[in-house]
Design a protein that fits this description.
Length: about 450
């Protein structure tokens, strides 16, 4: 499909998918907050947060490959419409199932499973509706709104509605937002030619023909995934881009699982006060995106990733040191931080701000490099593999971080994350240096 000739903000198709992303991401983050609050209030267990997040990544491990194959064999427009509609239904199920703990886990798994199909469809659709030279700007806008939606949904919408109107009203609102995102996706252009084969999906839809084809050709689909891996093996820069994205997203998942325990152990606050971590991180992402676009051609994408990895490792070390320092203050003063509390809040907030900036400087350049260099017929499968890779990377950490943090605190977890980040910086250094000169932001 020929990319639109207009810039992103004058491109109606881009605006439609962008506004659909805003609605769906705000709704998704508000859903996550609501489920975490409900489970925490009814179980009074920190492990429940890790379990909730863990269950959200399992579907990507199970269905990621199939989702990528189905995306490349179907009209991506209809994939986006259907997945938003199904998520609206899944949220509605929460009301029917009486909002108990079991229902929270069921809805969490349902939404996560549907999202496995939504993510590669959205990522593969973007390069078909914007010009190649506009991809960095488009991805920056997507990442900007992704994190802005996190603040809007996780920090503002869900807490306010739950406090004043209750869970029922919130989930009705969220279902309407998912439905609205689906309506916006209806206005997108169809992708027509399926996987570059010259064959058009039946009725340009996600009907039984496309799904049946993906199921019938599971063996062939797995063979094609091997084709994807062979292609990636010949392009090491793309392989490392996948690794960087996986590490960054895994660290976000781990941080989300540890956040309630961190504010309790380090700051002496309740689990609902994760805003002290979430707000600075979200602002950091926004600042990182602004700085990334202001620097423009002066910093290559590869160099941006390299700098971000070094700084991110340092931020994780700083988070690891926060609890030992807090314990020193408690032993020398009182059981609480007392007058040192504002200092600790400021330090932790500053570190989380840096954490958010480095996340932006890893994700946006890495995804842009993927979208620029991938073949059209492989995009859906590669982003499906990426979704699975993120899930596989985060699976083991999410199993371990809860017990480790309960036994020894959050410091060992953050130190381990720092070692992984710096290991990736060293391991991919040669490839980044080779790509830095020709690949300018």
């Amino acid at each position: 499909m020929v990319a639109a000739e207009r810039g992103p903000l004058r491109n109606r198709a881009f605006l439609a998918i962008w506004f659909a992303q805003i609605l769906s991401q705000v709704a998704a983050n508000a859903t996550t907050f609501a489920l975490i609050v409900l489970v925490a209030e009814r179980t009074h267990s920190n492990v429940s947060s890790s379990l909730l997040i863990l269950l959200s990544v399992i579907p990507a491990v199970l269905f990621g490959v199939f989702a990528g194959v189905l995306v490349d064999r179907s009209d991506r427009k209809h994939m986006l419409v259907v997945t938003n509609g199904l998520r609206a239904v899944a949220v509605g199920v929460f009301l029917i199932l009486q909002q108990d703990v079991a229902a929270a886990y069921v809805v969490n798994v349902l939404v996560a499973t549907i999202t496995v199909f939504f993510v590669p469809a959205e990522a593969a659709m973007l390069p078909t509706i914007v010009r190649k030279k506009d991809l960095l700007v488009a991805n920056s806008l997507f990442t900007f709104t992704f994190n802005g939606a996190f603040l809007a949904g996780f920090v503002l919408l869900a807490p306010v509605v739950i406090k004043f109107f209750g869970f029922d009203v919130l989930f009705v609102m969220l279902a309407a937002m998912f439905a609205g995102a689906g309506v916006l996706c209806v206005t997108l252009p169809g992708t027509g030619d399926v996987a570059g084969t010259g064959e058009v999906a039946v009725d340009h839809s996600l009907g039984r023909a496309a799904a049946g084809l993906a199921v019938k050709e599971t063996g062939r689909g797995l063979h094609e995934v091997w084709t994807v891996f062979r292609f990636l093996r010949s392009t090491p820069l793309l392989v490392w881009s996948l690794i960087y994205i996986s590490i960054a997203n895994t660290l976000v998942a781990v941080a989300g699982a540890l956040a309630p325990g961190f504010v309790r152990e380090v700051l002496g606050l309740g689990e609902r006060d994760v805003i002290y971590l979430v707000a600075p991180a979200g602002l950091g992402v926004i600042a990182g995106l602004v700085l990334l676009n202001l620097l423009g051609a002066r910093v290559s994408r590869a160099n941006a990733i390299g700098v971000a990895l070094v700084v991110l490792g340092g931020a994780l070390v700083a988070l690891a040191l926060a609890r030992p320092f807090a314990e020193v203050f408690r032993r020398t003063a009182t059981a609480e931080l007392g007058e040192a509390f504002p200092f600790f809040v400021a330090v932790v907030g500053a570190v989380m701000f840096v954490f958010g900036m480095t996340y932006a400087w890893i994700i946006v350049p890495a995804i842009t490099m993927l979208q620029e260099d991938l073949r059209e017929d492989l995009r859906g499968r590669v982003f499906g593999v990426l979704n699975s890779l993120v899930s596989v990377f985060s699976f083991l950490p999410l199993i371990l971080v809860g017990p480790v943090a309960d036994a020894w605190g959050v410091a060992p977890v953050f130190l381990g994350g720092s070692a992984i980040v710096w290991g990736a910086w060293i391991g991919g250094g040669r490839i980044r240096r080779a790509a830095a000169a020709p690949a300018q932001v």
